[in-house]
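Researcher: Please translate sequence to C-alpha cells.
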Amino acid sequence: MIEEAPVPKPAKRRFVDVLRALGRRKVGLMLALGFSSGLPFMLIGNTLGFWLAEDGVKLALIGFLSWITLTYSVKFLWGAVVDRFKAPLVGFLGRRRGWMVVTQIGVAVGLIGMALCDPRAHLAWLTGFGLLAGVAAASQDTVIDAWRIEIADDADELGLLTSAYSLGFRAALIATEALILLLASAIGWPTSYAIYGGLMVVGIAAALLAAEPAKADQAMETIAGAAKAHPVRGAYDAVVGPFIAFFGTHGWALAALMLTMISFYHLCDYMRGPMTNPYYLALHIPKATIAGVRATIGLGGSIAGIALGGLASLRFGNVRTLILGAILQPIGIGAFAMLGWHGGDYALVSAGGFDLTAFEAIMAFDAFAIGFSGVALVAYMSTLTSLGYTATQYALLTSALTWTGKTLKGFSGEIVEQLQQGRTLLEAYSLFYVECAALGVPAIILCVILAWRRPVGPAHPA
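Model: Translation complete:
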C-alpha cells in the first residue's frame, strides 16, 4: 500500500513579511483600480438623485432613473463579453487591460456627457449618458475583478490585492458621496461631474501600467479559437461553459455548499439594512450625530477592518479569515440591540477630556466587522474561479451573495411591526437586531464545514 505524501503546510509568515508585501507594485495599482471602480457608483445612483432633486426634477422620475444602476445586476452578461472577445481598438493591450481602458473611457464619456446636460431641458440625454456610464461601470467592475484574481501569484497576494481594491473603492465613495456635495455647492453640479469624469484617468493610467495575466489570456485565446471553428458550440460555451466548469471543478455537492454559504454570509447585514436609519430616529439620535459618527469613527473602523482583513488573509489564509469574519458580523449587528433595551444612547467611557458613547463604540465595531468580513468573503470567492471563465464565474458568485438579502430584506419592516405587538417600539427593534444577528449562525456553520472539506481549487491562486 502506497501512502499519500503529506500536504506541505504553507510557510508561516512574520508580521514584518506582511508589511513588506504591502509595497508590491501590483498592490498600488489595485488601489488605483479600486478607486476607478468606485468612482461612478454613487454618481449614477444616490448622488445623481441629489442633483436632480435640487434642479426640480419630480420624485417619480428620480425613482425611475435609479434603475440605471440595474446594470450592475447583470454582470454575468458583461463577464461573458470580456471573457470571449478582445476589446475594440485596443485589443493589442490584452483582454483584461484592453477592456479596462475601454470601459474606463466609457465611464468618463458618460459622466462628462451627463455634465453637459441640463436635467430640466435635456433629461433624456442625461439618462442616455447615465446608462452609458452604468454599463461601462459594471463592465469595468467585472474585468477589474477578473484581473485581480488572475494576476495574483498566490492566495496570500490575492488577499492583499482584495484589501487594496476595497480601500480604493471606499475612497471613491467618500469622494462621490460626501466631498462632491461641498464641490457642487462651490462650482455647481455640471462642473463637478466633469471633474469626476476626468478623474477616470487614474484608472486608465493604472490599466496601462498593469501587466496582462498571460496564462489567463492564453486560456481565453484557446477558448476563443475553438469558438471560431464551431460558432454554435462557442456561443453555448460562452453562456453555459462557465457554470459547467465551476461545478465540474469543485464537484456538484461542494459547489452547491459554496454557493449556499455565500448566500448566507452577509444575510444578517442585508436584513437589518432598511431598518437602520428608522432605528436611529426611534433612538432620538440627532442626524448630525449620525452623520458625524459615520464620517469619523465609522469610517475609521471600516478602513481598519478592510486593512486588517487583507492582512489576516495574507497571514492566516482565506479560510480562517472567512470564519472570523462570519463570527464578527453578527456580534457587531447584535450589539445594536443594547441601545434599544437601554432606551437610547448612553455614555460608555468618560475620562478627562475623552468621552465615548455606546452608539459610537458599536458603530466603530460594526464598521470594522463589516469591512473585515467583506474583504474575507471577496478574497475567498476570488479563489473559486477557473482560467478562461474568471469574469463570468465571479459574476455568478456575486449574484449568489446578493439575491437572498435583497429579496428578504423587504420584509424587515413587517417583522419589526409584528415584534412590536405587546412591546415598545425600541424593544421590537432590539429583538429584530438579535434575530438579524442569529441569521449569521448558518454562515458560521457553513464556513466551518467548508474549512473541514478543504476544497481543492483551480490552477491559479486558490
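Researcher: Any highlights?
Model: Confidence is low (pLDDT under 50) at residues 1-15, 455-462.
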